[in-house]
Amino acid sequence: MESRIHASTVSEDPKRALAGAAEPDASSPSIRRALWALVLLALGFTLYLTSSLLLPIMVAGTLALLLSPAVAALNSLKLPQPISAGIVMVLVLALLSVLSLNLAAPIQRWVDAAPEELRRLESKVSLLMRPVEAVREATEKVTEIAKNDKQPKPREVVVERRPATAMLTFTVDTAVTVLSTVMLLYFLLASGDLLVRKLVLVAPNREDKLRVVGILRTIQTEVGHYFATITLVNIGLGAATAAAMWALDMPTPAVWGVAVALLNFLPYIGPGVATVLLSAVALLTFDSPLAIVAPPAAFLVLNFIEDQIVLPFLLGRRLSINPVVIFIWVLFWAWMWGIGGLVLAVPLLVALRICAERVPVLNPIATVLARS
Question: Both 217 and 249 in a single domain?
């Protein structure tokens, strides 16, 4: 009897071993990495496909972080939360309206003069490119002589006209996005810290509750400080640019200052656009090569001082993130959400760094993000 039991046990052990070997171990590192890759891929597609829904929410949430201290200051005067939020919203919208009205007239003059200015720019660029054009024409003549085909084939020109309905749809979509962002921002400001309290209640234990509160408060402080610093620095850069353009006799220097201040909110791309615009207008305005080069060169010097000296000094550890990671991150969000992604990219990265430092399972991400 014992020998039969022993024999059956021995015969079953290889089967169990083979069955255990055939089943994949869900806790193995390779399977975990594959699962994380699938999750990230699905998350990326979700963010891309739902950009029209998520972008207003993200913009409203970021603005709520920035404006909540002003609402809290009004609350200290014994004003109800909805009234305080309404006052802050009215002040912000009034400030934006005044800024838009002051810029409307110069921008309208630019738009009206754009066709003529573009023709002048084209003629000046053609004069500058005349040597290159001569070389190109000589090359084409040599190529034509070498060809046996005497009759060149006529070129077919296809003109694509954008229907008026597409422009109308774009306008309506933009208006709906702006309106929904404004309404959501008011609701977030009027509700106060209700959302924070709800997130704390969802946390399972006291330690997690304290961690959630700490992460949210730190994100609010860090992102608020970042945007406040960036806004002040951009205003300073705009004022310095306006003074430099006035000294160099550029037209509408005040408009240039406002344009540079607004474009500088777009990392990497904004300064590039400002440099191209300054170069084009300088080429239209001046004839001397030194006078043409001076406006974009002055702006590049001011932007270098702002980007390499002023911002690192003011932000300190808040921007102590690997520059390569920042550049790739900005490109990713610009591809995902366009201009809105450019504006939100760095604050989102700051928030990710804070979460990675506070949550143990995300500590490897914090190591990747660190500058050193």
Answer: yes
In degrees rounded to 5, what are phi and psi of residue 321?
Answer: -120, 145
Per-residue pLDDT tens digits for 129-186: 555 555 566 566 656 655 555 455 555 544 445 555 766 676 777 788 888 888 988 8
pLDDT tens column, 310-349: 887 877 666 677 788 888 888 888 888 888 888 888 888 8
Sign of CA dihedral 249, 253, 257, 262: negative
pLDDT interval class at 234 (50, 70, 90): very high
- What is the distance in angstroms between the CA of the first residue and the CA of the last residue of the chain? 70
Euclidean distance between CA atoms 195 and 201, whole angstroms: 10
* Cβ 225 vs Cβ 66: under 8 Å: no
Looking at the structure, tell me whether residues 171 and 219 fall in a common domain. Answer: no
Please tell me whether residue 156 adopts helix, strand or coil conformation.
coil
Which pairs count as long-range contacts for 23-31, CB under 8 Å and 24+ apart, including other chains? none
Q: Do 173 and 271 share a domain, yes or no? A: no
Give me the number of domains the chain comprises. Answer: 2
Q: CA 288, 293, 298, 304: dihedral to nearest 10 degrees?
A: -170
The pTM of the full predicted model, rounded to 2 decimals, is 0.69
3-class DSSP state of 116? helix
Domain that includes residue 83, residue range: 53-143+167-192
- 186 and 222 in one domain? no
Both tokens of residue 41?
Answer: 């891929």
Beta bridge partners of 321: 370
